[in-house]
Amino acid sequence: MTGAQEPDCVSTKQQRIAELAKRSPQLGCTSLNHHLDRAWLVEASQRTRKDGAPGVDGQTGDDYGLALLDNLTSLLERAKSGAYLAPPVRRVHIPKGAGPETRPLGIPTLEDKVLQRAVVMALEPIYEPDFLDGSYGFRPGRSAHLALQALWQQVMNLGGCWLVEVDLRKFVDTLDHAQLRSLLRRRVRDGVLLRVIDQWLKAGVLENGDISYPEAGAPPGGVMSPLAANVYLH
């Protein structure tokens, strides 16, 4: 299979997942992981940024790419067999606005990012049809600019109105793990994917040489976090 064919293959599989989820919304999807093969992980790798800071293993995108297919094959085998152990997420603090306040930034390993992207690619076809049309955060084909455009159009249609801004402070950092697991199992009952997600929830955070294990919050810094937050909100 050539690299040019792989995205089409993944797109076709995602369409099948969406159709299955639509046919059985109350039963949950039990056979998702068989869609994840090496071509799927190659596509996930291509969608993953390689120029970010390295995680706890110090491995860069260039390093991982030297033996990409071998690395992805090993990652796939470990994920499906249960041998995959999610590494801790490296945490740094960056400025928040112009003031002295900072916000924590989680930096997963590159391999963890690729696997999270692969899982998100399998889950998005299930959840996207269920998400509300007014939801724009971290969703494919949507952006803050499109949200502002939709808001502006509604205001113009109404001839003016009051706008109320509400901020759910530290929402992603305070998601209840038990509740999140329960919500995910309503639509996803694939043991492989649930086991990997549970690994991320329990992986821990490395900061200033110390590892802590938060009892709440989505996987910090990974692409799984926005999807988990949207599932929780909806």
Topology diagram in text:
Blueprint lengths: L5 H18 L14 H9 L14 H5 L2 H14 L7 E7 L6 E6 L2 H18 L16 H15 L18 H11 L3 H12 L2 E3 L2 E3 L11 H10 L1
Parallel strand pairs: 1-3
Antiparallel strand pairs: 1-2, 3-4
Helix pairs in contact: 1-2, 1-5, 2-5
| Secondary structure: number of strands | 4
Tally of contiguous helical segments: 9
SSE pattern, N- to C-terminal: HHHHEEHHHHEEH
Helix content: 40-55%
| Residue share in β-strands | 5-15%
Oligomeric organization of the protein chains: single chain
Q: Report, as a whole number of angstroms, the end-to-end distance.
A: 38 Å
Overall structural class, as computed from helix and strand content, comes to alpha+beta
Mean pLDDT: 91
Q: How would a crystallographer describe the biggest sheet?
A: 4 strands, mixed
Widest sheet: strand order?
2-1-3-4
Q: Based on Cα principal axes, name the global outline.
A: globular
Instruction: Write down the Rg.
Output: 19 Å
Poorly predicted tracts of residues: 1-5
Can you describe this structure?
This protein has 234 residues and is an alpha+beta fold. It is 48% helix and 8% strand. Strands 2-1-3-4 form a 4-stranded mixed β-sheet, with no helix packed on it. The longest helix is centred in the N-terminal third of the chain and has 18 residues. It is globular and about 60 Å long. The termini are far apart. The N terminus is likely disordered.
